[in-house]
Amino acid sequence: MNESLRIVRLANFVAPASGGLRTALRELGKGFKAAGHEPVLIVPGERYSDRETEQGRVITLPGPLLPGTGGYRVLIDKRRVAKLLEELGPDRLEVSDRTTLRWTGKWARRARVPAVMVSHETADGVLRTWGLSENLSRRTADALNVRTAHTYSRVVCTTEFAEREFVRIGARNVVRAPLGVDVMERHPALRDAGLREEYARVDEILLVMCSRLSVEKRPSTAIDAVDELVRRGRRVRLVVAGDGPLRERLEQRARERSLPVTFLGHLNDKGALGALQASADVCLAPGPAETFGLAALEAMACGTPVVASASSALPEVIGSAGATAADRGAAFADAVDMLLERSEVDRREAARARAECFGWGAAVESFLAAHDAVVTGQVHRVVPERVT
Predict the structure, then answer these.
(1) What is the pLDDT of residues 134-163, one digit of tens each?
(2) CATH number of domain containing 62
(3) Burial class, 341, CB count within 10 angstroms (exposed 0-12 / middle 13-18 / buried 19+)
(4) Would you tell me which of 22, 77, 142, 284 could form a disulfide with 222, CB atoms 3.0–4.6 Å apart?
């Protein structure tokens, strides 16, 4: 086994306004580089570029916009991607797209390159959000997952929840590698009383949702929850940080119902996003197909508890520091009410303590283990101070 490996990573569906996947790719790349390896990331974009970054070399290949996705691009020129892979001569291949890039598993087999597929979402969960029945979604997902598990050396799942659909088909090459959060960048001290006053009065509950506004994220559940809370006489405000193809429809729904919802669009400023997360009372994470939920974990690192979909992996991530709910607005409203029954100090301390269980150092080491890669450099492990 070589000590220093060239780990080539491929990802589709990475847009300027996408959050979780971009964050994971960046932090893992930084970790691979710090550990003494050579990470190379290939993603689609508007035009070709090749540059050195903090996460290693990043190569952008021209890829068309996928209609109706709000900015996602895809790598569709297989010949060009294959040629680039041959030129790079990877020691390991890591693929973060279980659909349009699945062909790279066969390329890796022919090239005798160990390859891993990272499961960033459950296949049956995504299919259900797009309207397929539970039985059809499961059958289709099982067929897809059988081929994936057979083609790739390993399948990386970030939670036990994500692993279940592979266990169901009897796959034996699945490994667990949780993601993480930067607990020094996201912390409760970011809470800003002035910022909070911009969005909510002292007697109002400030809710926040940091999510891509697309079908699989089910952002409408958050709007329905606000509607229900208002109906119950709760004084609430919801701030939505994120963009996507459903934004116009959601804004129209909020206007028609005269709901107190503010849409900020995508926030490029990580500090501004952190301050918003820290200043909220509760974060809503309604995505039913989430296999980890980085935005929710970031909110918890800021001391803000989360209400998450019980259909997702987030109950496993947030533990007892938050609340879970069925995928209905009324259920989310019930969970918000339940969280707010706890004292503010208790719920914020519990959220922060739970987030501190997830660090990028451990995540990097787990991913490198999936690649059979040794740590020849220094993976940065943060031991945070208690910030309140």
Answers:
(1) 899 889 889 989 999 999 999 999 989 889
(2) 3.40.50.2000
(3) exposed
(4) 284
